[in-house]
């Protein structure tokens, strides 16, 4: 437990000088999310272009993180971490460019993937509910089973009418972007506090170091 906390503190110290990158990324994601929520797109082209721009932006941030890991931070398994960021950047860039230049196919594929995700989650939830029912946990199993059926029905509904569910898809993506962006901003602001405290993750740690 103490070892895990020490490793987390080391990562926080290493990332603290770059807190602004996390905040900017979070603000960018929230901005895209607000666009989806309050200015819903009326065509596949707009949805796909915004998603493509978001993916290219994310690829840019991954390239920056790869550069930081390579030149500025000493971490274990640096090659694996660098490879992860590079592959993520390449995938995001390719998907973003396809979305920008082939919007109709991209938007349809995204909605289909979302629908399949709902179906798979529903099936897994229902299966888990059946396992719990066999262990005499009927109350929780009924709740999980209902949630699983709800997910599966939602997924099937989306698949049956992809074109007619564009509005739901846009709102869902916008909400996810806002939530994830707020998490990034919160994380960045915490890193800012670590940076302003001289790399200490808590006031108690700073005092102990000063006493020594």
TrEMBL record:
One Pfam family hit: DUF308
The UniProt keywords, alphabetically, are: Membrane, Transmembrane, Transmembrane helix
Q: Name one GO cellular component term.
A: plasma membrane
Q: Which domain of life is it from?
A: Eukaryota
Question: Which residues span the membrane?
Answer: 22-41, 47-69, 81-104, 110-130, 142-160, 166-187
Q: What is this protein called?
A: Uncharacterized protein
Tell me the lineage of the source organism: Eukaryota, Sar, Stramenopiles, Ochrophyta, Bacillariophyta
